[in-house]
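Put briefly, the fold is written as integer tokens. One such record reads:
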Amino acid sequence: MHIWVDADACPKVIKEILYRAVERTAIPMTMVANRKLFIPKSPLIDMLEVAAGADVADAEIVTRLQAGDLVITADIPLAADVIAGRAHALNPRGTFYTEANVKQYLSMRNFMDELRGSGVMTGGPAAFHHNDRMAFANQLDRFLTRHLKSMQNEA
């Protein structure tokens, strides 16, 4: 398994949680962004800088993704592609996208885009809070623990 992070808009606190989780579990992670990011020196963590442009990082993640990988993203179209690729998608607020819910999230996103396009003020996402950070950390920990246990059972 590999962890991919849609890193351009990923909150710093989430990146820090991921860095610690990677070191604890020894699961490799790649931060994908259209600008150079600071990452800790670790053989498990690398940075992939892609060209600027809409969805360039998303396309790179989808191209490199393998079934069973984990992608951290708030981008719902990317999450839909990840799910279609038989991988896992977790948003920074701690919600897993699944086959059962990703179409609903995508429909709501498209509806809100239409509203904004027609001039209706819809506001942005809610501010990122401590509860969001805790929800993410808990979901990530449960997921990685299940993955590590399944690896041990296979060995």
In short: The chain has a mean pLDDT of 90. The chain has five helices and six strands.
